[in-house]
Amino acid sequence: MGALVIEERQHREWSQPAEALVGLARVRFAGPLTAATASTLRARVRQALVSGEAGLVVDLQAVTALDAAGIAALLDARRSLRAQAGGTLVLRANGIVCRALKESGTISAFALSSGTGM
Amino acid sequence: MNAVEPQGASAPAEHGIVISRGLRVYLRTMVPADLQHFAAWVDDPFLERMVGSEFLHSYKHVWDKAPAFYEAILNDPTQVALMIEAYQGWTKPVGVVRLFNIHLLEGYAFLETILTDMRAMKRGFGIEAGKLISYYGVDVLGLRRLEAKVYEYNVLSMNSLRRNGFRQEGVLRQAGYDGERYWDLVIFGILKEEIEAVRRRDKVYLPLDPSEGNGREPS
Q1: One digit per residue, pLDDT tens: chain B, 219 residues?
Q2: B21 vs chain A: nearest CA distance in angstroms?
Q3: Residue A67 counted as domain residue
Q4: A60, A97 in Cβ contact below 8 A?
Q5: For residue B74, which residues of chain A lie inside 8 Å, CB to CB?
Q6: Cα gap A15→B179, rounded to integer Å
Q7: CB B101 within 8 A of CB B79
Q8: ipTM exceeds 0.85, yes or no
Q9: How far apart are the C-alpha atoms of B1 and A75, rounded to whole Å?
Q10: How far apart are CA B202 and CA B179, in angstroms?
Q11: Cβ contacts of A35 within 8 Å, gap of 6 or more
Q12: What is the CATH number of domain B18-148?
């Protein structure tokens, strides 16, 4: 899953809801977001903060598993970004992610985007 | 936009990813091959009596030892289960430790430590595994309180919890059943500040002290 292909989709499939996300940095995760991998998300958020990117859209539509460690990383990301002026975190979730957020009781903590473009 | 493949997602996963290291043991993520260990552990009557683990019970009686149990655990957002591996002289995991009923927003969870090899007991493995996952709960999951339940006759587990700074908080009278009679369950708890105090105290792990307690405290 190369970044170029994703960039191309961004132009072709940009949807109305996603237009509201213009100006936010975007990152896409694929595979399991679990105890074994959540540090990658944390590192990416740190990088965003260092770069002055207070708004981040995290595309989780290719995520294949999400456990408590992954959700904790998302909650941390939300906290860190919202501590910045104008900071925000928006998730693009698939069914696996939505189910995990619901079962963990955390779904109300996140802003979810229904846009198809990324 | 950047596309990020989480670390470990494409790496060989047959040995798991090491999450935390202590002096005696380390904790790693589960892999499908661990189910063969679970299959043996769930038939151990000693474990059943001492721990009464819902985790192992579920693997045997709900999942019927099916391979899908692994995926179910991997996708369970309310628990983190890690395998306990000892450093020297051990060819297979000595147990499993987990945080379950994790409430991320409220900041609390329950702790279960299962040592499955008799030879691994009284070596400090369980204490260290509990300590490591407690730190993980605070540092990574953002938890501020952990709880554990112990059968009143499991003095070893009670003393292990006390050594890790847990306090007895109450007794659930005759809440456990071992197939023959009812037993009290003793409730232990620890707060984030107390976990931090243990971490400061144990900056360098010391040899095991003599047992500090002797079973449950008077109610």
Answers
A1: 544 555 444 343 568 889 999 999 999 999 999 999 999 888 887 777 777 788 888 888 888 889 999 989 988 999 999 999 999 888 899 999 999 999 999 999 999 999 988 787 878 899 999 999 999 999 999 999 999 999 999 998 999 999 999 999 999 999 988 778 999 999 999 999 999 999 998 865 544 444 445 566 666
A2: 14
A3: yes
A4: yes
A5: 32, 34, 65, 67
A6: 60
A7: yes
A8: no
A9: 21
A10: 39
A11: A67, A68, A69, A70, B17, B19, B29, B80, B82, B140
A12: 3.40.630.30
Residue bearing tokens 């070893």? B156
Contact status, residue B183 vs residue B151, Cβ threshold 8 Å: yes
Asked whether the beta carbons of residue A44 and residue B2 sit closer than 8 angstroms, the reply is yes
What is the phi/psi pair of residue B176, to 5°? -115, 150
Asked whether residue A117 is domain-assigned, the answer is no
CATH code at position A57: 3.30.750.24
Pairing of strands B95-103, A88-92: unpaired
Chain A CB within 8 Å of residue B141 CB: yes
The total domain count for chain A is 1
CA distance B95 to B84: 5
> Which residues on A lie below 8 Å from B72 (Cβ)?
none
- Cβ–Cβ gap A67/B74 under 8 Å: yes
Task: Find the CB nearest A36 among B2, B4, B17.
Answer: B17
